[in-house]
């Protein structure tokens, strides 16, 4: 466990209330799932924890940063995993370790890309749990990388009042590990997804996925 590198209490009363009410990854996942998704209707954003609390909305990277800030206050290192997709629609999750197993906290437009219970032996195994639900009309995970946000040094990604684009640039620039997957498997998943969407044009795609018991 790590100690946050901040002065006694930089948080507002509301921020501290949120932190104290959400002491576990499972609680943070429920908090993020309840937030309206940030569709960036007025332009692209990358908000800090402070700004997410003020606006009461978050997209996937913002949610990962919120999880990192909250869980850092409870002794977890601010670790995230960045996914690369063949269509350029990438994803970021907060990751944590419990009893030697890895789990994740995440927010997405797709329920299958939310968090994972801490049951995975390694980061690669955790990433693979996202492969199937990542496949839609264009998506396919092609790479991933674990990143420690403390590498950003004194840059204020936690509480800044402005967009924190340096975080996004950092995650885009770090080398990603290739995730090699079978074209036959991908084609099968794509066919299944298209068939489901033909029958159900709207709504979450959940029942077609296996291993949902590992989702959080």
Q: Helices, strands, pairings?
A:
Layout: H1 13-21, H2 25-34, H3 49-55, H4 60-72, E1 79-85, E2 91-98, E3 101-105, E4 116-120, H5 123-128, H6 131-134, E5 141-148, H7 165-173, E6 177-178, H8 183-199
Antiparallel strand pairs: 1-2, 1-5, 2-3, 3-4, 5-6
Helix pairs in contact: 2-4
Overall mean pLDDT:
95
Shape: globular
Strand content: 15-25%
The major beta sheet can be summarized as: 6 strands, antiparallel
Low-confidence sequence ranges? none
Q: What string, H for helix and E for strand, traces the elements in order?
A: HHHHEEEEHHEHEH
> What is the helix tally?
8
Please characterize this protein's 3D structure.
This protein starts with 12 loop residues before the first helix and ends in a 17-residue tail after the last helix. Helix content is 35%, strand content 16%. The mean pLDDT is 95. It contains 8 helices and 6 strands; from the N terminus they run ααααββββααβαβα. Helix 2 runs antiparallel to helix 4 (60-72). It is globular, with a radius of gyration of 17 Å. A 6-stranded antiparallel beta sheet has the order 4-3-2-1-5-6. It is an alpha+beta fold.
Structure summary:
The protein is α+β, with helices and mostly antiparallel strands and 216 residues long. The chain has helices at residues 13-21, 25-34, 49-55, 60-72, 123-128, 131-134, 165-173, 183-199, and strands at residues 79-85, 91-98, 101-105, 116-120, 141-148, 177-178.
